[in-house]
Design goal:
The protein is an alpha/beta fold. It folds into 3 domains: 345 residues, Alpha-Beta Barrel (TIM Barrel); 128 residues, no CATH class; 83 residues, Archaeosine Trna-guanine Transglycosylase, Chain: A, domain 4 (Roll). 38% of the residues lie in helices and 20% in strands. The protein contains 26 helices and 29 strands. The strands form 7 sheets. An 8-stranded parallel sheet has the order 8-7-6-5-4-11-10-9. The protein has a 6-stranded mixed sheet with strand order 25-29-28-27-24-26. Strands 17-16-15-19 form a 4-stranded mixed sheet, with helices on one face. Helix 6 crosses helix 7, helix 10 packs parallel to helix 17 and helix 12 packs antiparallel against helix 15. The longest helix is centred in the middle third of the chain and has 28 residues. The radius of gyration is 28 Å and the shape is globular.
């Protein structure tokens, strides 16, 4: 019922199926108070194209008139809305006003009986001020109620929302999410975050979301309760949140506050609307201010909704073009506390890295120091630090990389020819990303990045040299530098390049497998590698946009033969194997296991239960998603193998 269509790391564009239609995510659920309809549900659906909204079942339950109508005619008739409707249980009211005079089973039964598409259990709201023992008890109660709810309605037509609680304690958030995930629910809100939002505690919010996502694993959709301001949407979607309920559009309007992607401004302080939404396009700021109170409130609420939906559209476009990180970093600079949240992203980079591809088509834009801490950058830097092995024994020649000379090897052609393979040396570039082996300079994001020219850091270079115990260092200073070298024949630069890229892209040992023999490179007119042949067989083609390789049939056969399972493998069921061997895609639900180090976008070997090679594909999901999702694409097959080939 939740199928991912596009992704950018943890962010995803997906389709969520409900009894009243498909909801495209990420999306906003405007909050509708059945007693106070500032903008009616029909208007939301017709004017704003709202696919889903949220209302409070406890408010309806408390009004005998509304309760009777909802039970008699159904929730959708009561609200005059034909799309999907989620109902809250009254947990937030309990947080604000104290205990509710209703049993958890009673309010859940009511939601199901009135035809809610997404019914929420009465969970226990955890306050940021609660100590860990209090939070633990509330988590236990919430999980117990979730167990009871799934026993009663887990197979019913309505989705059951199982809120994740845990206060500001990441370990308890993760524990709660993990326990709820075992119930195999279909909708997971992250609750208890409104006090964090109200107090601009975005650093804590990031840690809460990350811990919740880590505990949940590959589930969805994930709903962030109370996140109604558009300035939060890019960050929350980046962290894997799919739906947001928004009462802010109305609350802010009642006090004259207009929402913008970078903050909030009161109408009395505005001289220029600075907005081209339909509402602002029809009114001047003076005309808006002169409206009577009710109409002015309504118009500001409309503006707030238009801005919110427009920001969601920007987020979706950023996901599709793989530029969401840039959008998040730009938006974070709109508020000091949002800027602080980037530090929380940095501390959680390993969790986010699982969902990040090794390469992409969109260049990396530097927006500040946080750019150097993105998971894709950290992965490469950590690999170079911990896993990269110099291919020859000899001194290390260090070049200073110029930002306007990328990829570096194209502007060092004379130097490379003079050094390789005439001298046994390793070639290292000093770059804004840190020290990079020259043979890796076309790998994303080294060449596919835009930095100021003055970011090369001597301190990071020295730190790298010390950590890797590199003492024989020579800084390149023109061809006369050759005079200080002993002429010991080394390995060709081209072989170093193929070997190192394969080690990084595929796994340890892949470089040896794919260079063990007579290597022949086909280059374009600019000297860039296009195809790699080994012993006369076409094994690899280089992708121009990220400097990584596409596996050809002979290359896949070599890797499959020499690398033991589960390396690089996605094992599918017997039924799927014959289907994939014909060149058709791999789908979730037919994957037995996937190697844990596969990342979205990786070249993978599709094998059957007997480990026979049936296809080459590019992973769409992480291994955990492949193994746990039941619908949607797992990997795009590029080449299928007949039984005789494999």
């Amino acid at each position: 019922m939740f199928e991912i269509k596009h992704r950018d790391g943890m962010a995803r564009i997906a389709e969520f199926t409900t009894p009243h239609g498909v909801v495209d995510t990420p999306n906003i659920m405007p909050v509708v108070n059945p007693n106070v309809k500032l903008i009616t549900p029909r208007e939301l659906q017709k004017k704003f194209k709202s696919e889903v909204l949220i209302t409070n079942s406890y408010v309806i339950y408390q009004s005998q008139h509304l309760k009777d109508r909802a039970l008699e005619r159904g929730l959708h008739s009561l609200l005059d809305f034909t799309g999907a409707i989620m109902t809250d249980s009254g947990t937030f009211q309990a947080h604000v006003y104290g205990e509710l005079d209703i049993e958890p089973t009673e309010i859940l039964d009511f939601q199901v009986n009135i035809g809610s598409d997404i019914s929420t259990i009465l969970d226990m709201f955890t306050e940021p001020t609660d100590n860990s023992s209090v939070v633990k008890k509330k988590v236990d109660t919430t999980v117990a109620r979730a167990v009871d709810a799934m026993d009663r309605y887990g197979d019913g037509p309505s989705h059951i929302a199982l809120p994740i609680q845990g206060g500001i304690y990441p370990d308890l958030r993760e524990e709660c999410a993990e326990r709820l995930s075992r119930l195999k629910g279909s909708f997971y809100p992250i609750g208890g975050v409104v006090p964090l939002l109200e107090n601009y505690r975005f650093f804590d919010l990031v840690n809460v979301i990350i811990a919740s996502k880590r505990g949940l694993g590959p589930t969805g959709p994930v709903h962030l309760f109370g996140a109604g301001h558009p300035m939060l949407y890019p960050l929350a979607v980046l962290l894997g949140c799919d739906l947001f309920d928004s009462s802010s559009y109305a609350k802010y309007a009642r006090r004259g506050d207009m929402m913008y992607p970078d903050g909030t401004r009161n109408i009395d302080d505005i001289e220029h609307l600075a907005c081209l939404c339909p509402t602002c396009s029809d009114l001047t700021v003076e005309e808006l201010k002169d409206l009577d109170t009710d109409e002015k409130t309504r118009k500001i609420a409309e503006h707030n909704l238009w801005v919110s939906y427009n920001e969601i559209e920007k987020v979706k476009q950023a996901v599709r073009e793989e530029s969401l990180w840039e959008l998040v970093e730009r938006r974070a600079r709109a508020h000091p506390y949002l800027l602080k949240s980037l530090k929380a992203l940095t501390s959680n980079w390993k969790t986010m890295e699982i969902y990040q591809p090794k390469g992409r088509k969109k260049a990396l834009f530097y927006t500040g120091k946080s750019t150097l801490e993105r998971p894709m950058v950290k992965r490469l830097k950590v690999w170079i630090r911990d896993s990269y092995s110099p291919t020859v024994c000899g001194p290390t020649i260090i070049f200073n990389g110029r930002e306007d000379k990328k990829p570096y090897n194209r502007y060092l052609t004379r130097e490379i020819k003079a050094l390789s393979p005439e001298y046994s040396v390793n070639l290292l570039m000093q770059t804004p990303l840190g020290p990079i082996p020259l043979e890796m300079d076309e790998v994303y994001p080294v060449a596919q990045s835009i930095f100021p020219e003055d970011l090369n850091d001597e301190a990071s270079l020295q730190k790298y040299l010390d950590r890797c115990d590199i003492t024989d260092v020579i800084y390149w200073d023109g061809l006369e530098t050759l005079e200080s070298l002993d002429k010991v024949t080394g390995i060709s630069y081209e072989l170093m390049k193929v070997y190192s890229v394969c080690e990084y892209q595929f796994c340890r040992g892949a470089g040896e497998v794919l260079t063990n023999g007579e290597l022949e490179l086909v280059k374009n007119r600019r000297g860039r590698i296009k195809n790699v042949f080994l012993n006369g067989k076409h094994i690899l083609s280089m992708r121009h946009y990220d400097g990584l390789f596409s596996l050809k049939e002979e290359g896949a056969i070599l890797l499959h033969k020499h690398l033991q399972a589960p390396l690089l493998r996605v094992q599918v069921t017997e039924d799927s194997a014959s289907y994939n061997a014909e060149g058709k895609n791999v789908f979730n639900g037919f994957v037995n296991y996937a190697w844990e180090h596969i990342r979205p976008g990786d070249e993978v070997l599709i094998v059957d239960p007997n480990d026979s090679l049936v296809a080459i594909a590019r992973a769409f999901n992480s291994p955990y998603e492949m193994e746990n999702y039941h619908v949607g694409l797992a990997a795009r097959t590029r080449t299928g193998f007949s039984s005789s080939q494999s």
